[in-house]
Amino acid sequence: MRLIVENRFALLGLVAIALAALFGVAFATRSMGADTSGADPEPEVVPVESALRVCPTPQGKDRESEVSAFTPIGEATGGSLTAGPDIEGAPPLGETGDAGRPWTQDVSDAERPTVVRADGALAAGAEVVQTTIGEDDPYATQVRCAEPGVSTWFAAPGENDLKSLRVHVANVDDAAATVNVDVYAPEGPIVGEETRGVSVDAHGEATIDLTDLIEATDTAVVHVRTNVGRVAAALFAENTASGSDWVPPTRAPAQRLVIPGVPEGGGERRLILAAPGEEPVTADVRAFTPKGELDHEGFTELSIPPGASTPLSMGDALGKQEATIVVEADAPVVAGLAMERSGGDDTAYAAAALPLEGRIHGRAVLPAALKGTTTRLLLGAPEKPGTVVVTPVTADGERGERQKVDVEAGHTVTADLDTPKGAHALVVEVSEDSGPVHAGRVLTQGSGKKRATTALPVLPSPAEVLLPPVQDTLTSVVP
């Protein structure tokens, strides 16, 4: 026996024999008790049990900022929702949230990102948004508090329309992360020392200023990715003191993208497209308004150079109508929309997003907005007729009347809702027979020329997830 152990080849043979015996027993056991009819196993539906969101540090002075969260009431009970600064061991801010009741926390004085953690019933379908408004003059920004990840895309205007463009990243994990930022301009990729190998300490943050890099460019598509670890990324575009906003993350490159929630109003509205691949791309753009699809010859066969971005002015074609924008390309692209009222005193951004559809992704949550603002819900149905049911929820958790909104195929509508006074959340659900519905939230402070507008895609807020089936195969044991 000693000779066998000392001979590494003999030892390897023993291991192979043992593994063969193990798989043989497993196969025999499976053959006796398992269903061998050949039917594919179904994925398992399980409730979401934990959620982590990171809200970036509020920007600007003389501002009021608030983090809002909401979790619809589900079948599960228990759990918690807490928020605090991204400092290890820091005590939580405010009170713990309750399922089915809108939760808010003042973060006007926050000097670090705010981390929101939920578990149990408070995690299933939770949504978290940070809103900032002006204390004296109209100013409005909103940003969906992000889940930490390894890849985030943004589409923003270039230096010609901006004072500064800054990437904010936060690392909420216990190990350091390394971040790279890719910038796609009309002339091609832009690389700088400040965008490569940015180290972010555990529970740390970093700001990457892209302003000098995008000087004299019309558009900038930004890709924030990590080599090590994960981060929550946000992009802040500063135009004037009042005309600044967070740029919402857009979908990863795809051949078909839908940008919902383009609000009505005059001024420039510029579509931003980028082809991150190594081949040129041809794209068609379609715009769906309350009057139906626009017929505009300038929206077809757009050429996008490889590794570059390109703008498309849509202001004249759209007029003052709200819209849902669809981009269809022969290779994956990135898309977003920048909107500016004349003079740059009011800017907003829209991004590509997934629709509300089906059992898992058929519900969205809009947390309560700050007092002194108005909220509009824009709904688009580019493909098939859509129907959503909107339910307001007051600060004490009381549910209002369910309101049905129909969206004709190929149209965009602003939902006419009867909402309660004071802080309230909205639950948006597609009907069983509805086609995909793309939604956007438009928030405004002030009115007339003295107003500030911010837009945000409304994303599905799943309370359940699908777990892939596991089969009795070698790949189930050895990845």
Explained architecture:
It is a single chain. This protein has 479 residues and is mainly beta. Among the domains are: 1-31; 48-350, no CATH class. The chain is 8% helix and 47% strand. It contains 4 helices and 34 strands. The chain has helices at residues 2-6, 8-33, 315-318, 474-477; strands spanning 44-47, 50-55, 63-70, 79-85, 103-106, 114-120, 127-134, 140-144, 151-157, 164-170, 177-185, 188-190, 198-200, 205-209, 219-228, 232-238, 244-247, 254-262, 268-275, 281-289, 292-293, 302-304, 308-313, 323-340, 347-351, 363-366, 373-381, 386-394, 403-407, 411-414, 424-430, 438-447, 450-458, 464-467. Strands 18, 19, 20, 21, 22, 23, 24 and 25 form an 8-stranded antiparallel beta sheet that branches. Strands 9, 11, 12, 13 and 15 form a 5-stranded antiparallel beta sheet that branches. The longest helix has 26 residues, at 8-33. It is globular, with a radius of gyration of 25 Å. Mean pLDDT is 87; it is low at 1-6 and 25-36.
Distance between the termini: 33 Å
Question: Structural class per helix/strand content?
Answer: mainly beta
Q: Which spans have pLDDT < 50 for at least 5 consecutive residues?
A: 1-6, 25-36
Helix share, percent: under 10%
Organism: Nocardiopsis gilva YIM 90087
Protein name: Secreted protein
Pfam families: DUF5719
